[in-house]
């Protein structure tokens, strides 16, 4: 699929796109009786990871900056080494922003994504009754998003290091420092989606074909009718005779039609 | 001789005192005096003042604080800026016999000699002095004295009505029996040019005269200025710069016109504040390069106008066609340029082709590197002449998507999820909201995931599906519209054909028209339920190709549609019956049900 890419003068590969898959999100545990006061009812972990467990993110990312809610001490937190995650205790849901700064060799702008940290599961009743009915200390609330970062014409070095990052046999860092979080890391596949969409596309193609045929027919009909109308406008007087002759051309299936106009003629004359 | 000075002639004065010119940044007057003359309130004044006041006698400054900006009509006046300076000057008109003096608000810097005599015209000058002035101005014009005199006389007599003037001119010099060369060759623009040239020369002359006379009156002493720069007298008679008003630096009394003008110029060069802002007479602007009459332009304009007038119908039609084409092409080009796609890519690939189930990359396993032919969009099209509707529609759809999709630029990574956003609704490339909604409904019915995973393949596929759905919707609309047009044109044709026959036939016409109108009405009605009918129709036709035949078996419909059909080829009959009333369609072998509500129905295979 990849032909040999040329390298431009600025060190970037020409006509190359590199997609780097990334998964980011949060996992929140309800502490229940272990809560350290009412302001720390949940422990959550906000992270950025690679969906592929053998991919070495440190080759691509130089640092990740997490921007938390201002009520946290030091809300701006920078991590320069994987695993890129923040674990905190809190009580409220908020919107955190994650900024991924790529390696200097990449010469790419940093990517910012936002993520809403969810502490409560979806089926939370409106008026909070007893939390213990719907909250479970064992089952965390996971909200994770898969995305791909697309680099256009990446620098050659960066491209090479990206390729190398995959070849690492064993990661030099743990996937997560929190053991409880690890088991909730999942992998992603697009087969299902892609297949559904290709099915849909096939069907639409069929419909499109038929509509295009129809359009062609209408167009050709319109052309002939317009031509006829134009002729009429140019020749005004001799219409009486000309028109009758015009009705003669009979399409194969329409024998009944051609009978009618001559009959009209006889009626009037 | 023209009046060169402001003479306070004792005859009929204006009885009322002048209003006070607003020389302050703002003019706050507490009282309004009822007997202020209306004529003082002209538009310019009102613009100068705050809206709730009139010009009145001495301003009483209120303790009212003045706002910094005031809306006057549709303009905003900033009160901190100094307003224009006006003065209430008197003028006479030599066209009036009694020498009555009127006054007028005039820019403070404008010398009254310019507008002192509104009534005078060129023709009042004795021609001999004209001649002298012209010879003095060193113009090389192949106009003889006799010609010029004749022209001036004509202009005076006919009040500068050029069409009459040229007619008289032609009669005199270009009549059939005798032609006087070179007079007979003069066209209107030549006459006009000559006339205005004379006018501007004279104006300049008068201006210099007024300087001299003023200088003489006030201070005949010589004042030593810096050494005179002998600048050449401008012969083109455009702007002249004059000294403002009597001042210690008034020009010394010079003998000749040329020197007078030169000193005026010196003054201008010495101090820019001495250069008044003057409106060039009869041009209405202060622009120095403003010409009274541009001969070259006028010649060109006349030539083009003549050509346009004398065009044949054929040429007109051609031009109209070319213009329409040009508009189309320019619109296309603009759209493409906007997306930087006006250059043809080497090998353009469609996104759909990239979506193959056996793609090499797996999700999440490795960074996928693909080499595309150029950092282009997915699904780009080669720009070519927009011949048919389909390509036009596709182009529109693509551009709508590209409005919202991220632009791949080197050094600026984007997220794949950015490509999953809906296409643009507003903007020139935007689609209808309703079209978008219908598209989403279609996708829902086709079981396309609402939030597909953000991988390259998936995003490509999603793009392709959405574009196809949109194209389908828009094309359906187009087809319906065209079919309606077709039906109406056919009925028109029938009417035309059967017109020469008697009224007995016209009843039949009405019937056939009625049927044709039925065919009209139905597609129009169906536009509201467009997503439903045509899809079922096309699905039906796609599903069963023999659907056409059973329709023809119904005799009544055949007869009615027979007349229009007789005019067309057999191929089109199928499509016409396709536009026939819906009832028939349903009765055929279609599995899709004539839906409930407006949801687009798609026959699933």
TrEMBL record, chain A:
GO terms for cellular component: nucleus. It is found in: Nucleus. It comes from the Eukaryota. This is YEATS domain-containing protein. Coiled coil: none annotated. Residues 244-253 have a biased composition (Basic residues). Its main location: nucleus. The keyword Disulfide bond does not apply. GO terms for biological process: regulation of DNA-templated transcription. Keywords: Nucleus, Transcription, Transcription regulation. Residues 12-165 form the YEATS domain. It comes from Thalassiosira oceanica (Marine diatom). The keyword Nucleus applies. The lineage of its organism: Eukaryota, Sar, Stramenopiles, Ochrophyta, Bacillariophyta. Residues 235-269 are annotated as: Disordered. CDD domains: YEATS_TFIID14_like (cd16910).
From TrEMBL, chain B:
One of its GO terms (molecular function) is transcription corepressor activity. Residues 134-200 form the DAMP1 SANT/Myb-like domain. Residues 524-533, 595-605 have a biased composition (Basic residues). The keyword Transcription applies. One of its GO terms (biological process) is negative regulation of transcription by RNA polymerase II. It is found in: Nucleus. Keywords: Chromatin regulator, Coiled coil, Nucleus, Transcription, Transcription regulation. Residues 25-66, 214-254, 499-558, 570-605 are annotated as: Disordered. Residues 312-339 form a coiled coil. Residues 214-227, 503-514 have a biased composition (Basic and acidic residues). Pfam families: SANT_DAMP1_like. One of its GO terms (cellular component) is Swr1 complex. Residues 34-49, 56-66, 570-579 have a biased composition (Low complexity). This is dAMP1 SANT/Myb-like domain-containing protein. It comes from Thalassiosira oceanica (Marine diatom).
């Amino acid at each position: 699929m990849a032909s040999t890419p040329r390298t431009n003068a600025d060190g970037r590969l020409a006509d190359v796109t590199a997609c780097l898959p990334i998964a980011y999100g949060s996992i929140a545990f309800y502490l229940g009786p272990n809560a350290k006061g009412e302001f720390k009812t949940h422990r959550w972990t906000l992270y950025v990871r690679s969906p592929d467990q053998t991919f070495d993110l440190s080759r691509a990312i130089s640092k990740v900056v997490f921007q938390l809610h201002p009520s946290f001490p030091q809300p701006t937190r920078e991590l320069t080494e994987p695993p890129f995650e923040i674990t905190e205790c809190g009580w409220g849901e908020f919107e955190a922003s994650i900024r991924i700064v790529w390696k200097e060799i990449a010469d790419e702008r940093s990517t910012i994504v936002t993520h809403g940290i969810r502490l409560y599961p979806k089926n939370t009743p409106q008026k909070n009754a007893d939390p213990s009915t719907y909250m479970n200390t064992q089952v965390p609330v996971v909200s994770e998003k898969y995305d791909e970062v697309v680099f256009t014409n990446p620098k050659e070095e960066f491209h090479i290091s990206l390729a190398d990052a995959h070849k690492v046999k064993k990661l030099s860092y743990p996937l997560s420092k929190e053991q409880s979080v690890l088991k909730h890391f999942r992998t992603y596949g697009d087969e299902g989606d892609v297949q559904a969409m290709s099915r849909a596309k096939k069907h639409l193609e069929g419909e499109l074909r038929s509509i295009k045929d129809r359009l062609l027919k209408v167009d050709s009909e319109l052309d002939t009718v317009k031509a006829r109308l134009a002729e009429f406008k140019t020749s005004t007087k001799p219409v009486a005779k000309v028109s009758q002759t015009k009705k003669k051309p009979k399409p194969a299936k329409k024998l009944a039609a051609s009978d009618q106009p001559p009959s009209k003629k006889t009626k009037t004359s | 001789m023209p009046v060169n000075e402001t003479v306070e002639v004792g005859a009929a004065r204006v009885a009322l005192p002048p209003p006070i010119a607003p020389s302050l940044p703002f003019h706050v007057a507490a009282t309004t005096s009822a007997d202020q003359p209306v004529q003082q309130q002209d538009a310019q004044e009102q613009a100068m003042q705050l809206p709730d006041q009139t010009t009145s006698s001495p301003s009483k400054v209120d303790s009212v604080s003045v706002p910094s900006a005031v809306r006057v009509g549709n303009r905003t006046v900033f009160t901190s800026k100094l307003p224009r300076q006006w003065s209430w000057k008197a003028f006479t008109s030599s066209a009036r016999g009694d020498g009555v003096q009127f006054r007028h608000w005039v820019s403070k810097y404008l010398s009254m000699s310019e507008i002192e005599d509104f009534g005078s015209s060129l023709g009042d000058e004795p021609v001999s002095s004209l001649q002298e002035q012209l010879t003095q101005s060193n113009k090389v014009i192949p106009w003889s004295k006799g010609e010029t005199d004749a022209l001036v006389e004509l202009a005076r007599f006919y009040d500068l009505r050029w069409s009459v003037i040229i007619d008289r001119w032609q009669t005199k010099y270009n009549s059939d029996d005798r032609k006087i060369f070179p007079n007979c060759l003069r066209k209107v623009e030549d006459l006009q040019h000559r006339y205005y040239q004379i006018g501007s020369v004279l104006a300049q002359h008068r201006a210099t005269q007024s300087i001299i006379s003023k200088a003489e009156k006030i201070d005949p002493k010589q004042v030593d200025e810096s050494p005179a720069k002998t600048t050449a007298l401008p012969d083109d008679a455009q702007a002249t710069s004059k000294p403002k008003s009597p001042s210690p630096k008034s020009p010394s009394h010079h003998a000749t016109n040329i020197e007078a003008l030169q000193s005026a110029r010196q003054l201008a060069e010495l101090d820019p504040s001495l250069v008044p802002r003057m409106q060039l007479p009869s041009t209405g602007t202060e622009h120095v390069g403003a010409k009274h009459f541009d001969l070259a332009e006028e010649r060109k304009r006349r030539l083009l106008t003549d050509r346009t007038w004398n065009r044949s119908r054929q040429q007109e039609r051609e031009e109209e066609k070319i213009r329409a084409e040009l508009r189309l092409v320019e619109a296309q080009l603009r759209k493409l340029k906007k997306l930087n796609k006006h250059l043809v890519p080497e090998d353009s690939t469609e996104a759909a082709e990239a979506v193959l189930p056996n793609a090499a990359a797996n999700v999440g396993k490795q960074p996928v590197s693909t080499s595309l032919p150029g950092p282009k969009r997915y699904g780009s099209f080669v720009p070519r002449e927009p011949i048919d509707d389909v390509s036009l529609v596709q182009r529109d759809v693509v551009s709508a998507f590209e409005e919202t999709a991220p632009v791949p630029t080197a050094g600026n990574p984007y997220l794949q999820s950015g490509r999953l956003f809906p296409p643009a609704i507003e903007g020139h490339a935007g689609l209808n909201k309703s079209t978008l909604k219908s598209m989403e409904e279609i996708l829902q019915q086709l079981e396309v995931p609402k939030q597909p995973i953000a991988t390259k393949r998936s995003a490509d596929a999603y793009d392709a599906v959405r574009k196809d759905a949109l194209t389908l919707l828009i094309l359906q609309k187009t087809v319906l519209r065209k079919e309606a047009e077709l039906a109406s044109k056919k009925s028109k044709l029938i009417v035309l054909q059967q017109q020469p026959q008697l009224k007995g036939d016209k009843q039949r016409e009405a019937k056939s028209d009625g049927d044709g109108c039925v065919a009209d009405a139905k597609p129009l009605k169906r536009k509201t339920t467009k997503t439903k009918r045509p899809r079922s129709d096309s699905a039906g036709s796609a599903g069963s190709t023999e659907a056409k035949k059973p329709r023809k078996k119904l005799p009544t419909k055949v007869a009615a549609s027979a007349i229009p059909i007789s005019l067309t080829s057999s191929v089109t009959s199928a499509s016409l019956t396709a536009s026939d009333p819906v009832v028939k369609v349903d009765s055929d072998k279609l599995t899709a049900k004539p839906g409930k509500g407006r949801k687009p129905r798609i026959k699933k295979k």
